[in-house]
Amino acid sequence: MAKGFFISKTLGIVGIVIGAGAVATIIALSVVYSQEKSQNNELKPTSEWTTTKAPTVPTTAPSNEPWDQWRLPQTLEPEWYNVLLWPKLKPDPTTGLYTFSGSSSVVFKCVQETDLILIHSNKLNMTKHPTLTAHGSTPAPPFKSYRMETKTQYLVIHLEGKLTVGEKYELHTEFMGELADDLGGFYRSEYFENGQKKVVATTQMQPTDARKAFPCFDEPAMKAVFNITLLHEHGTTALSNGKEIEIVDTVVDGVSVTKTVFESTEKMSTYLLAFIVSDFGVIERNEVPQIRIFARKDAITSGQGDYALNVTGPILRFFEKYYNSTYPLPKSDQIALPDFSAGAMENWGLITYRETALLYDEESSSNGNKERIATIIAHELAHQWFGNLVTLRWWNDLWLNEGFASYVEYLGADNAEPAWKIKDLIVLNDVHRVFAIDALASSHPLSSKEEEVQRPEQISELFDAISYSKGASVLRMLSDFLTEPVFTQGLQTYLKHFEFDNTVYTDLWDNLQMAVDNTGTPLPKPVREIMDRWVLQMGFPVVTINTKTGEISQKHFLLDPESVVERPSDFNYEWYVPIKWVKNGMTNNPIWLLEKTIIREEMKSNANEWILANIDVVGYYRVNYDQDNWNRLLNALKTSKNSIPIINRAQIIDDAFNLAKARMVNITLALQTTEYLSSETEYMPWEAALDNMDYFYLMFDRTEVYGPMQAYVGKLVKPLFEHFTTLTNWTDVAEGHTDQYNQVNALRVACSTGLESCTSLVKTWFQQWMKNPSVNPIKPNLRSAVYCSAIAAGGAQEWDFAWNMFKSASLASEADKLRAALACATKPWLLNRYLEYTLDPDKIRKQDATATIINIASNVIGQSLAWDFVRANWAYIFNQYGGGSFSFANLINGVTKRFSTEYELQQLKQFREDNSNIGFGSGTLAIEQSIERTTANIEWVKQNKEVVLKWFMDAAKTL
Ligand SMILES: *[C@@H]1O[C@H](CO)[C@@H](O)[C@H](O)[C@H]1NC(C)=O
Ligand SMILES: *[C@@H]1O[C@H](CO)[C@@H](O)[C@H](O)[C@H]1NC(C)=O
Ligand SMILES: *[C@@H]1O[C@H](CO)[C@@H](O)[C@H](O)[C@H]1NC(C)=O
Ligand SMILES: *[C@@H]1O[C@H](CO)[C@@H](O)[C@H](O)[C@H]1NC(C)=O
Ligand SMILES: [Zn+2]
Question: Which residue positions are annotated as catalytic (predicted)?
Answer without folding.
Answer: 380
